[in-house]
Amino acid sequence: MDNLIFDFIFNSMILNEMSIRVRMFVRLMHLVIALLPLCVRGQGPRQPENTGSSRQQLVPGAPSARRPNIIFLLTDDQRWDALGAMGNRLIRTPNLDRLAGRGILFRNAYVTTSICCCSRASLLTGQYTSRHTINDFSTNMTPAAVAATYPILLKQQGYTIGFIDKYGVGDKPPASLYDYWTCTDKSQPDYLLPDGKGHTLHNTDSAANSIREFLDRFGSRGPFCLSVSFKAPHEQDAQGATPSQLIVQDQYKDLYRDSTIPEPLTADPKYWNRLPDFMRTDKNIGRVRWKTYFSTPALYQQTVKNYYRLITGVDGVVGQLEEELKKAGLADNTIILFMGDNGMFLGEHGLQGKWFGYEESIRVPLIVYDPRLPAALQGLRSDQVALNIDIAPTILKMAGVTIPAGMQGISLEDLVQHRVPDRPDFYYEHHFLHTPELPQTEGVAGGRFKYLFYPEHDYEELFDIRKDPHETTNLAGDPAYKALLVKMRKRYEALKKQAM
Length: 500
Known about the structure:
alpha/beta; Alkaline Phosphatase, subunit A; 2 domains; nine-stranded mixed beta sheet; four-stranded antiparallel beta sheet; 16% strand
């Protein structure tokens, strides 16, 4: 009826040569009448959907405002140079190398404490060991500390969170707080796991299955954060009469068979003999394990090849993960971070393991791949110092979640875009056990000069990393470096206070 009325008015006005202004008014009235039933029924224009978070902050140049999915991949005992992208021409890591080529490769990445429990607590909390106080394998984080870890902070902002394989902090991990949890109850997972069909499944393959299951269940339900902590390439610790060993997936057992791994410079016995007396003892755990893995040339070849094989196995899972993300339509909005929890001596200085403040022990691989990265950052090779305490704030920043004031790390996104100053060095600390098993270590690392202090013995080491990258010559007793030694002592004291 309303339309008939206005058609009559419109036709009458045409006969009277109506003005352009009147015709525009009539057309507007038609539009009002057309929308009137919708307004009466309460169906006005649709409002934007509330995503649950107003703190979305994406990398400059990001194509969308969707909150990203985040996957953090962590290997156990993988040193910085056990990666093709870091210049190793023997190891085969094509998937990780490709990821580095499309993301950011941090060539000077370190851990602030080189042992699983402490480093993993630092990864979760963004704090130095001095602050989070996890110094052994049985101490648990307080409920307040757990609530301030990156996965739980993301869950509070609507993320689905999962953790696979090895949590590695305390003996009562917060499994109930996660939407998906397949971590072992042991402090160190086993390599060979029952598959429920009377056979065994390698730990790396089990992790791959868990990743696939998580993506199938939660990949389409909104933003998620999945933390995957591989056992590889950590050794299988001795169990009863079974000695410590590296257990490789069947499909990689012949890989590197025809290769010869060059022995490192400091594998020469004279460098073991240069260590201070309190370290040069058969009670030193690093020396005990050296005898098992590196005491003969044949053992050296076998150990390093198996170490590389385990890492190549992880690389295979990374390739599978990328394919799963593509199939699920998640690849364009999923960030992948990859890191080692600490380094590893492969016979250098007559040692096996980590713990001490030398480069082989504290330096690790680190890749940050974000499909939203601006072109200028894709394939970047950064020489800036990055730390394990930077992982939590980086993840939070990329998700658009406020970084708690208690975190001591920085966003790596901010670091590479020069929003924060480069760090010239950092405080290193290791207090698990003591002499003679593991002499406690503190110091300053990451810059040209490294200062190490052994508080149980009031002993100092000073190395020029630029001229002496293998740390063969202790300059602490050289009169020519007296002024520098004094300067490094002061820097050590300052950094130690800041780490608290």
